[in-house]
Amino acid sequence: MGAGCGPFLADYGLEFPLGAPFEDSIAALRLVVSGMIHRYPRIRVIVPHLGGTLPFLKMRLDGSLGGRTEYKPSEYLKSHIIIDTMVFSNEGLRHLVAEAGVGQIVYGTDVPFNWPVTVDLVLNASFLSDADKEAILGGNLIKLLRVS
Description:
By secondary structure, the chain is mainly alpha-helical. It has helices at 7-10, 15-33, 36-39, 48-51, 58-65, 73-77, 90-100, 119-123, 130-145; strands at residues 45-47, 81-84, 105-106. Strands 1-2-3 form a 3-stranded parallel sheet.
């Protein structure tokens, strides 16, 4: 793990469960605040681990960083930041869809690590249309990677 996972987390074995999502958030926010995403408007950044903390701290980030970027951080979340589905509950997935939008979400897995495989969570989500499920489970990534 990187700089965000020093002894404060390592002493209690929190590097992966807590450190990784926060490092993902820090890396993505540095790209936003530095202006990199604004300078390269076609760039898309995939943030693993459910987008770190970004979907959950959206209002806090807008309030504290909004004046330091061309747009509010939440606007980049809905346009330039792609988030994976490493979520383990129906409500977590619902929140992710509400905050980022179906078009910004791709299926993610942490295989070979011992995390639940969540494809059924997406398939069984009653609040998603079949088109939404298809987009999350492959369509968005096909479009992003320009695979035909």
